[in-house]
Design goal:
It is a single chain. It is built from two helices and two strands. The chain has about 100 residues and is mainly alpha-helical. It has a domain of about 60 residues. Strands 1-2 form a two-stranded antiparallel ribbon.
Length: about 100
């Protein structure tokens, strides 16, 4: 499995490297207040991809914290129920087996 993932990584690297070599022309990005940003197309694409990924992570952060908080609540509820069950000290009755056919 490690060989397959390594081979997949190498193939992806070669594809992205080829993409980068094909897109080296200069592009202009016109922003507000007559500000202009100039650079290679592949770097602009990479920068916007990274910015989009960062925004997605920021958007998912509240959901992640809410799920983690709910999980911790449920774990504490399970622990309290287990400790309450241990305090009762009643042994469970074994299941009866019917041997008649």
């Amino acid at each position: 499995m490690k060989i397959i993932s390594t081979a997949f990584g190498v193939v992806l690297f070669v594809l992205f490297f080829g993409f980068a070599l094909k897109n080296t022309q200069e592009v202009d990005l016109h922003l507000f207040l007559n500000y202009e940003l100039r650079g290679p197309l592949v770097l602009m694409l990479l920068a916007f991809f990274v910015a989009g990924a960062a925004l997605c992570i920021l958007a998912l952060t509240p959901t992640l914290f809410r799920q983690r908080r709910e999980s911790n609540k449920q774990k504490s509820t399970i622990q309290s129920l287990q400790s309450a069950a241990m305090q009762v000290n009643e042994r469970p009755q074994p299941d009866s087996i019917n041997t008649q056919h």
